[in-house]
Design brief:
The structure holds three protein chains of three kinds. Chain A is mainly alpha-helical. Chain A has one domain. Chain A is 69% helix and 2% strand. Chain A has a two-stranded antiparallel sheet with strand order 1-2. Chain A starts with a helix and ends in a 17-residue tail after the last helix. Chain B is of the alpha/beta class. Chain B has two domains: 205 residues, Rossmann fold, CATH 3.40.50.300; 61 residues, no CATH class. In chain B, the strands form two sheets. In chain B, strands 6-7-8-3-9-10 form a six-stranded mixed β-sheet, sandwiched between helices. The longest helix of chain B has 17 residues. Chain B is globular. Chain B starts with 30 loop residues before the first strand and ends in a 10-residue tail after the last helix. Chain C has three domains: 30 residues; 98 residues, Immunoglobulins (Immunoglobulin-like, Sandwich), CATH 2.60.40; 288 residues, ABC transporter involved in vitamin B12 uptake, BtuC, CATH 1.10.3470. Chain C is 58% helix and 13% strand. In chain C, the strands form five sheets. Chain C has a four-stranded mixed β-sheet, with no helix packed on it. Classes of the chains: A mainly alpha, B alpha/beta, C alpha+beta. Chains in contact: A-B, A-C, B-C.
Chain lengths: 327, 299, 434
């Protein structure tokens, strides 16, 4: 077993644009579910809209990088509004079903050959990051040390993503501590009580949906920025992984989703290297290394079940803050 | 509250609230709330069927009646928490039909709930601050910049602490509302409602589930509302409380208003006595309320 | 929550009108001019390709649709009449040449507009239609429609088997079971293992169904009943079902890998002509027959047996049922056993319908099982059956009118619309909601 490469893979997951993008998605979901209590099982749809929003505005409309980001955010906001108007009045379990269906519709539309010239269908889209790369302030060379060494372009994406994440987290932190956040907290627990105090509950829920949607959409854009956009990436499994990361860290906190995302990806990278190596070394019986790779997702599933029953507040959450746990 | 403890000072009752003889639907000298032909059916059951009712301004009105009379449903309809099948009603002259609950509350008509809705996730102080209206900090964009709302927040906190002091909840200001007793939560809900600077306060069974030691203090607070110029409408079952503090009583049974008037008069009204005590036990309550008309000769 | 209805009613009504207009406008623009390619699926190794020529003259702009193994794609021939469709796996596919896109007076002369392709030994198959001057048989379009209707009925029946279980689980425990897709996969998986272990096919089927029923029993005994006893909230239970779905899906992947397996006899089932040029394979007929028999038997059980009546009572109103002396926990256990068995059978039939067994085959139809249940009314078994038939036929026949790879979108949209306007579905009752 090559301990060294297992270590390298795991360590790299700590500072990877994928991890950061995932943290953004978890942050967005935290706003939806952790703070407002909306059962959004379609967060992968928001990520897809954000990702393709960036790619399509660059490739089809020739937007420069900053306009493409704005377009991505606008697309996410629009998706949130479209989804929100009919569904914010639905009770929890129906909202869950509708959001999964909505995300799947987005994926099917992107996969269809009907608009293949714009969406790339199953082949997806590539080569939309050139303008972004052109503004890279870091000259050619290698950056970092040890397992964390990047080319100039990789480093640029990483730093950019980190800055965006920091801003998003700061924004959420501010929101949560403000009177707006107070109203949201009240809504999470009891809408009618808040309504009786003169607050327009629907408007607040919509605002939270849009803000969370934009954050998750940016996560999607960052997710595909270093590589390529493909409908396969945004399957329902992605939503469930984001949920696992969120619950693991702490759904009703700002730091929780960040922590959960990092732990999730580091664990994924670790198991993704360790298990196949163990299989190759014959430690896992008749399992091949490919089969062993699938095992790590089995563990994710079990992890999700255990967390939500045994410690639903996650690592940094406060049990008293939760409204979805029946006492 | 049987075997009632007399209040510290006997309340000043308002009189001369009505125009003409006291009867169901009688006009008021200065009504704050006027409702016409309000009805609500659930399936085949008529929950509310009120021809006309006016609530007098600046007075304490009690809405009484046996269980299932439609009191809470009427509350829900008047405050926008439910949609009636028919009916129009206005608050200080403004038409309220179709107005959503939060707008009704913004207009100055605030209500509490039978099952107290003190928000357990928030502290007592946060609950209070939530009640304040027109907060800049509650707008999405402005909330991100604390300097825009810090000053207002301090003013709100001052007012909140004042009210908490009055309600004797000041010590508990940083406790989560979930840790309060049932009676303390009722007080908190009332105190929080005051933060909205309401004109009309509608209390749904404020005494329900409150231990006798706290009822006196609750009654005092309700009287204070009147002293400060607010109108109060409350639903209650406790007759002694009603007799003590209510200026006007409206009696409902089977969705209809069967009597109105000052407390002492209403208590003696035959229809009211029947509705509660059923002395005409062999007669259908529906006959008493006028819902059913019997053929001539039958009783 | 009536207050929500009151307050949101005005937003909802106004918002929905704007939304509907916007969507129709958007759809009109999008569907008016689909930009189609002549090559699709480049990332797949396996390809079906061909040339459309009329007596040597290449025909451009002819639409070709390929469907099979749960995959569908379409292309339009280029200036040289060439087309190529990459497919994820070597298997049996239906190729349809849309005759409306041929020039006037030209038609497919032999074999009909829809034909079946079997895979050979290489990773590409060349398919050329015989084109020439001739009467385009207007009935072949109609026949195509009938084929789709039958496919829809077949799909609807197996969907119904799965949807009934989902609906009853929801009715008796208020849980939308997001792991139901995996319960479907299990049936096919068990069958595969049994046949690989040498068990004769006809015995494998009932054994696999029994094992699936046992799986259902196990889930309730080990997971759901203890959680119910602990008073765990419904949101947590939903998330648990998601965790279970992930767990079992990837266990299946660990065993099967990423590829497709076939159950014995899935390929090459002889086609039997039914009427005109409409044919059905023996597999299709057996599948539909089995589904019908099982559904009738289940209906009988639900209506006549003591346990069946108790199940309907609990699904209707659990508290009332408990108050009249019914052992609710026992009923729920039976529901999970039934749901497991029915889902397992659905899985076997789904493996023959696609055809093919894949690790995520259950997940692929999960949302349609939900759509069927929601449409019919979650909580009622008969509703689930009606909903499934409608969803199945809707999906398959919609491919006649819209690009075939969008046929699933229609069913999902219907489900969303039902949840918004009539959440109790066709046969459900209003009081269940909210």
């Amino acid at each position: 077993m090559d301990i060294n490469s297992i270590f390298i893979n795991t360590a790299q997951a700590l500072f990877s644009p994928v991890t950061i993008a995932f943290a953004m998605a978890a942050l967005g979901l935290a706003i939806h579910f952790g703070f407002v209590g909306l059962l959004n099982f379609g967060i992968a749809g928001f990520m897809a809209v954000g990702a393709y929003g960036y790619a399509i505005s660059t490739l089809t409309f020739g937007f420069p990088w900053w306009a493409a980001f704005l377009a991505s955010m606008a697309a996410s906001a629009l998706f949130a509004v479209l989804l929100g108007i009919p569904t914010l009045q639905l009770r929890g379990d129906y909202l869950a079903i509708v959001t999964i269906a909505a995300a799947e519709i987005v994926r099917l539309l992107l996969l269809s050959t009907t608009w293949i010239k714009t969406t790339g269908s199953a082949d997806g889209l590539v080569a939309y990051a050139n303008d972004f790369r052109s503004i890279n302030p870091f000259p050619d060379g290698t950056y970092g040390f040890g397992p964390w060494s990047y080319t100039a372009n990789q480093f640029w994406v990483l730093i950019f993503a980190l800055v965006v994440l920091a801003l998003a987290a700061l924004l959420l932190w501010r929101l949560v501590r403000s009177p707006w956040g107070r109203v949201i907290k009240g809504i999470r627990e009891d809408e009618d009580a808040v309504r009786a105090l003169g607050k327009n509950v629907f408007a607040y829920k919509m605002q939270a949906l849009v803000v969370g949607g934009i954050v998750a959409g940016l996560g999607g854009a960052l997710y595909v920025l270093p590589s390529s956009a493909n409908p396969m990436l945004f399957a329902t499994s992605l939503t469930f992984f984001v949920w696992t990361a969120l619950l693991l860290g702490g759904a009703a906190t700002v730091f929780g989703p960040l922590l959960g995302a990092v732990i999730f990806w580091v664990l994924q990278a670790f198991l993704g290297s360790l298990l196949p190596a163990m299989a190759d070394a014959g430690l896992l019986g008749a399992l091949s290394s490919a089969q062993a790779g699938a095992l790590r997702f089995v563990l994710v599933g079990i992890l999700l079940v255990v967390i939500v029953i045994v410690r639903p507040q996650g690592i940094v959450g406060d049990k008293r803050e939760l409204t979805f746990v029946r006492k | 509250m049987s075997g009632s403890k007399p209040l510290k000072k006997a309340p000043q009752k308002s009189t001369g609230l009505h125009v003409g003889d006291a009867s169901p639907g009688v006009k008021k000298v200065d009504p704050i709330l006027v409702a016409d032909h309000v009805s609500r059916k659930f399936g085949g059951l008529v929950a509310v069927d009120v021809e006309h009712v006016e609530i007098p301004r600046g007075a304490i009105t009690a809405l009484i009646g046996p269980n299932g009379a439609g009191k809470t449903t009427l509350f829900n309809l008047l405050t926008g928490f439910d949609k009636p099948d028919t009916g129009t009603w206005s608050f200080s002259g403004k038409d309220l039909a179709g107005v959503p609950a939060h707008k009704v509350a913004k207009m100055g008509q605030v209500r509490t709930f039978q099952l107290t809705k003190a928000l357990g996730l928030l502290t007592v102080l946060e609950n209070m601050k939530l009640g304040a209206k027109d907060q800049t900090g509650e707008s999405l964009f402005q909330s991100i910049f604390p300097f825009l709302w810090k000053k207002q927040e301090e003013e709100i906190e001052e007012r909140a602490l004042e009210i908490l002091e009055r309600f004797k909840l000041l010590k508990l200001k940083d406790d989560f509302a979930a840790s309060l007793s049932g009676g303390q939560r009722k007080l908190l809900e009332m105190a929080r409602a005051l933060m909205t600077k309401p004109t009309l306060v509608m209390l749904d069974e404020p005494m329900a589930g409150v231990n006798p030691a706290l009822t006196e203090s609750l009654l005092e607070h309700i009287l204070d509302l009147k002293t400060e110029g607010m109108t109060v409408l409350f639903v209650e079952h406790d007759m002694h409380m009603v007799r003590h503090i209510a200026d006007w009583v409206i009696v409902m049974a089977e969705g209809r208003i069967i009597a109105e008037g000052p407390p002492e008069d209403v208590m003696k009204d035959e229809a009211v006595v029947d509705a509660y005590l059923g002395s005409h036990q062999d007669v259908d309550l529906g006959v008493v309320t006028g819902r059913i008309t019997l053929p001539k000769g039958e009783k | 929550m009536s207050s929500a209805t009151t307050e949101n009613h005005t937003f909802f009504a106004r918002g929905m009108k704007m939304l509907l207009i916007a969507i129709l406008a958007f759809a009109g623009v999008l569907f008016a001019s689909p930009a189609m390619a002549d090559t699709v699926g480049d990332e797949y190794e396996n390809k079906i390709l061909g040339n459309v020529k009329n007596e040597g003259t290449p025909l451009q702009g002819v639409r070709i649709i390929v469907e099979g193994n749960g995959y569908t794609a379409e292309v339009v021939t280029d200036a040289d009449g060439k087309w190529s469709i990459g497919v994820p796996e070597a298997g049996s596919y239906l190729i349809t040449l849309v005759e409306d896109t041929l020039p006037e007076g030209i038609a497919v002369l032999e074999g009909g507009a829809t034909q079946t392709v079997e895979w050979g030994f290489t990773n590409s198959v060349v398919w050329n239609f015989f084109i020439g001057e001739g009467e385009r048989n207007p009935t072949s379009q109609l026949d195509q429609f009938f084929m789709r209707v039958f496919a829809g009925l077949n799909f609807g029946l197996l969907l119904g088997l799965a949807a009934i279980g989902l609906s009853l689980v929801f009715g008796t425990t208020a849980l939308p079971n997001f792991a139901h897709g995996e319960m479907v996969t299990m049936g096919a998986l068990f069958t595969l293992f049994l046949t690989l272990a040498g068990v004769p096919l006809l015995l494998s089927f009932p054994l696999a169904v029994a094992l699936s029923a046992l799986f259902g029993w196990g889930l309730d005994a080990a997971v759901w009943a203890p959680l119910r006893a602990r008073g765990v909230g419904i949101v947590q239970l939903m998330i648990v079902s998601i965790g279970l779905s992930l767990t079992f899906r990837y266990i299946t992947q660990a065993f099967l890998g990423g590829g497709t397996e076939q159950l014995p006899g899935a390929l090459g089932s002889p086609e039997i002509p039914i009427f005109r040029t409409v044919t059905l394979s023996v597999n299709d007929l057996v599948s539909m027959g089995v589904s019908l028999v099982v559904l009738v038997a289940f209906a009988f059980w639900l209506l006549r047996s003591k346990m069946g009546k108790a199940t309907r009572a609990v699904s209707d109103n659990a508290d009332l049922a408990a108050a009249s002396g019914i052992n609710v926990d026992q009923v729920i256990r039976v529901v999970w056993i039934m749901a497991g068995g029915l889902a397992g059978l659905a899985g076997i039939l789904w493996a023959y319908f696609r055809p093919g067994l894949k690790w995520d085959m259950g997940e692929k139809i999960l949302l349609f099982i939900f759509a069927a249940g929601v449409l019919g009314g979650l909580g009622t078994a008969f509703g689930a059956f009606v909903g499934a038939m409608i969803v199945g036929v809707l999906i398959e026949t919609s491919a006649q009118f819209i690009p075939s790879d969008l046929k699933y979108v229609g069913a999902l949209l219907v489900m969303i619309i039902i949840l918004l306007f009539r959440p109790q579905g066709i046969l459900g009752r209003r009081e269940r909601i909210g």
